[in-house]
Amino acid sequence: MYYSYCVQGVLASSESHIAPVVFLEPFVRSKKMDHSHKTGAHLHPKTFDEVIALGFPLDKLELLKDIHKKLVKPLLGGAAAFAPKPPGAPVTRQNQADLSPEKREAFRNAVVRLVEEGKYLELVQFHRDMSHDMHGMMGETGLYRFLGWHRRYLVEFERELQRVDAVLRPGATEKLAVPYWRWEDPFPAWLNGFLPANDPDTGTPPPSRKNASPPQKANATDVDIIVNQFSIQNTGLNNENDYTKFTYGLEGWGRRPDGTSLPGHNHGHAWVGGIMNNTMSSPTDPVFWLHHAEVDRLWHIWQQANSSAEPNLSGSDRIMDPWGESYDDLVDTEDLGYVYDSTSL
């Protein structure tokens, strides 16, 4: 039982229970996983507004925030050993559809090795423990940290992949990189081997994906709107230098010109279904990394046209825990050790 589960137990009612993810074999979606976000069997509030709706006393919210700040963060910072930046030129993140069979196999093997080591579950736990700090759950500052935090999170995963890949492929001439999944493309079927076929707990499958749920994901037109000209809350945006509006659009809170909902990051999680639908534990599914690499790529494209835009963060709010690095350290992808093979939409 991890400390974060205890913190969530305080947030939820006394009848609530959060079951840790169980790895029976690599990425099999065990029925022991927490599916209460679908069944409603347990109360799992995700935001402080939801805590209030459940009747949690307002005067205790600051106490909960204080618990998270003083206990969870130090535990993470003290116990974690982060992968160092590898030497050499930046790696190139590729479209998953263009990966050679050898690179796909190398990625799969490296992920399995991380699972066997216990490192993968540790990375999932980072996401669980820090969700209240970078998903908007503690106010707007969490939303402002979302892109920077996940950029650094992907870098951590990528460096761990490279560490184990160097052992698995000692003669490899290229270091492993996290591929990205363009949302208009079908689900990367080469990842299906990680998951059970047609698990009844993971949703109704479309033709391209055995483990997907019905919600739609963004298409090429939607991606163009998100990056270039989406409107949010009836406010026009055309390459506007506004970090907040871009983040809202990327999250999936914007509108198409016809007024319908604009799919974004959140819709991708729902479309895949299963554990990806559980915000805190979603990295359990390896497609999480490909999905968020596309989030990061779109942010990178937007940054090129809006280089002076940045989130409304100041002081300690600019620090990305558990790494203790500033938002300013996460702006340049080359400095972090990677580039993208394409910056086109």
Quick rundown:
The chain is 43% helix and 3% strand. It is an all-alpha fold.
3D structure, described in words:
The structure is a single chain. This protein is mostly helical and 345 residues long. The protein has one domain (90-345): di-copper center containing domain from catechol oxidase, CATH 1.10.1280. The protein has 12 helices and 4 strands; from the N terminus they run ααααβαααααααββαβ. It has helices at residues 3-11, 36-39, 48-53, 61-79, 101-117, 119-134, 140-168, 220-229, 243-251, 265-272, 287-305, 333-336, and strands at 91-93, 319-320, 325-326, 338-340. Strands 1-4 form a two-stranded parallel ribbon. A two-stranded antiparallel sheet has the order 2-3. Helix 1 (3-11) packs antiparallel against helix 4 (61-79) and helix 4 packs antiparallel against helix 6.
Distance between the termini: 43 Å
Which shape, going by the Cα principal axes?
globular
Structural class: mainly alpha
**What's the helix count?**
12
Tell me the number of structural domains. Answer: 1
Write the CATH homologous superfamily.
Di-copper center containing domain from catechol oxidase
Uncertain runs are 1-79, 195-215, 217-240
Average pLDDT reading: 66
Largest sheet: 2 strands, parallel
Strand segment tally: 4
CATH class: Mainly Alpha
Task: Provide the spatial order of strands within the biggest beta sheet.
Answer: 1-4
Helix fraction, binned, reads 40-55%
Q: What name does the CATH topology carry?
A: di-copper center containing domain from catechol oxidase
Our Rg estimate from Cα atoms comes to: 20 Å
Overall CATH architecture: Orthogonal Bundle
- Taken as a percent bin, the fraction of beta residues is under 5%
N-to-C SSE series? HHHHEHHHHHHHEEHE
Region (Disordered): 194-219
InterPro entries: Di-copper_centre_dom_sf, Tyrosinase/Hemocyanin, Tyrosinase_Cu-bd
GO molecular function: metal ion binding; oxidoreductase activity
Keywords: Copper, Metal-binding
